[in-house]
Amino acid sequence: MKKYLLLLSTTLALFIAPVISIADVTVGVTISSNSLDTAGKEDIDSNNTIDATKNVTDDFMVGSIFLEKTAMGDRFGITVGIDYIPFDADIDKRSVSQDASGAAAGGKSPQSTGTNSVEGTVEKHRTIYLQPGMRIGDSSMVYVTYGFVSADLNGRSTNLSSTDINETKSLDGEKMGIGIKRVADNGLVLKLDVSETSYDAVSFTTSNNTTATADLDNTAVALSIGKQF
After folding, report:
1. Which of 10, 112, 149, 222 has the fewest C-beta atoms lying within 10 Å of its C-beta?
2. For residue 180, what are the β-bridge partners?
3. Judging by DSSP bridges, how do beta strands 113-136 and 140-158 pair with one another?
4. pTM for the whole thing?
5. What is the pLDDT of residue 223?
6. Nearest to 118 by CA among 219, 42, 34
7. What pLDDT is recorded for position 206?
8. Are 223 and 30 within 8 A, CB to CB?
9. Which of 91, 226, 224, 75 minimizes the C-alpha distance to 157?
10. What is the pLDDT of residue 84?
C-alpha cells in the first residue's frame, strides 16, 4: 500500500508541474481529538504463546505545530509538510490483581497477592506527510493524507511474577486520512480532517524472559489554523 500511495502522489506532482500557479508556505497550530486503542499481549516465557491479552482505549486532546508547502495548479495541488507534537500523551495506568506463589522474579520479596500495573507515555511525536488534493472553487481544496509517523514510547510496568519495566522504544507508523482546506484572501488557512494512524507493534522484555507487546492505533479529528506566506 505504501509504494502505491507514494507512486500516486509522485504522479500527481508531475501532472500538475507544468501548470503550477501557487507555491506557498504555511505555518500553524493544530488541535486534535484522539482515540488511542492499545492492544496488549503478554508472553510469560517468550515461547510465542500468548498468556494474557488486554485491549484499552484512551481519549484525549492534544496540540501540535506544523509547517507545510503547497503547490497548486488550475485544478489539482499537492502539499508536503511536517507536524510535531511538543507534548507527551499518556496511556493511562491499568492495574489487575494477581495471586503468586514462591519467590517473585528479580530478587523481589515473595508475595502471595498483589497488583500488577502497566502504563506508558508517547513522546516526541512527528509526522511527515503528503496531501494531494483537488481545488473546489477559488479558495478551497479537498485532499487525502498519507504520512510517515515516528515517536518514542516509554513503557512502565510493575509485576509480581516478573521484573519491572521502564524502557523507551521507537514507535513508527503510517497515517492516512481525508480533509478539506480553505485559504482566505488575507492568507488565513483553515483545515479540518479525519485520520487513522496504525503504529508498528512494540515489545518489551523483562530480565526473566517475559515479553509484553503493545499494538497502538489512533483515530483523530483535527482542526488546524495557520498563516500562508
Report:
1. 112
2. 142, 192
3. antiparallel
4. 0.77
5. 98
6. 42
7. 73
8. yes
9. 91
10. 96
Closest-CA residue to 64 (of 215, 201, 195): 195
**pLDDT tens digits along 176-194:** 999 999 999 999 999 999 9
Return the C-alpha cell found at 88: 507527551
Amino acid at 192: L
Alpha-carbon Rg for the chain, nearest whole angstrom, is: 22
Cα–Cα distance measured from residue 63 to residue 81, given in angstroms and rounded to the nearest whole number:
16
> What would the pLDDT profile of 128-151 be if each residue is shown by its tens digit?
999 999 999 989 999 999 999 999
* Residue 112 near residue 97, CB atoms below 8 Å: no
As a whole number of angstroms, the distance between CA 134 and CA 179 comes to: 11
Half-sphere exposure at residue 215, Cβ-oriented, CA atoms within 13 angstroms: 8
Grid cell listed for 211: 515479553
Closest CA to 157 of 103, 64, 95: 95
Query: Residue 215 forms beta bridges with which residues?
Result: 39
Terminal Cα-to-Cα distance of the chain (whole angstroms): 34
Secondary structure of 70-89 as H, E, C letters: EEECCCEEEEEEEEEECCCE
| Whole-angstrom distance, CA of residue 158 vs CA of residue 123 | 21
Q: For residues 6 and 158, what is the distance between their CA atoms, to the nearest angstrom?
A: 42
Report the amino acid identity of residue 28: G
φ, ψ at 101 (rounded to 5°)? -130, 145
Percent over 70 (pLDDT), the chain: 70
